[in-house]
Amino acid sequence: MGHTVRATAPLATIEEHSNQAMTAAMKEGGKVAESAEAWLGPALAVVPPAELELRAARAGERTARTELQAEEDKAIRTQRGVRDEMWNALGRPRVNIHMREVFPNGVKEYTEGTRESRVTSMLRLKERIEATRGPWKKEDLEAWGARIVERHTAFAAAYEAYRPVAARLNLAESAYRGAILGTRTAMQAVRRDLMNMGLSEPQIRKIIPDAGAPGKAAAPEEKPTPPTTPPSPAPSNDTEPPVVPPVLKAE
Question: Within a domain: residue 235?
Fold first, then answer.
């Protein structure tokens, strides 16, 4: 007995089998063609628009991802630059309690982690710069804080613009896969009709492509391309050395 292509087969293979079945059934004519038109016709009609939406979604996601990555890189460079300028203003001491006040865990506290957390942490850095009790000049602190805010605004805008685009891609991939699997279900329905018509297995195989017995190794499943999220940049290697807290003498 023949077997319809499996659901775990590559989507391109499932679509190819469906189109072959439709072409063969229409060529056969009669009740065979009627069955294919009833089942495969509507299923195959859903595939082209789903594929067009998937292509558009992927193109939009690539564009938004590129813009997000660019703003993210600028934000990280700005934070590292501000940290270096603050450190340089103090003479780059090995240990400094005021640097630790602004950068408790080094600059990586603001440049690592999830993208959402890094968007938020930039504002925390700005607040710490403005609230520090260190020996920096007030105008310098204000300038550093303003640079952080400027880059935060651009980074946050790019991140918010990327989120719905990534969601659209997820939905488009799901819809496309559903459309392709729908053609497989239609082929199974046509196969049942052909069996009820009394067609022999060799005759059915001329209409519905045979995928082999279930015991045979199946082709790997074609998984949709996930919305690519730009990787987090590598941590800085020039983090300020840890501060050794002073030992307080008892009164």
Answer: no
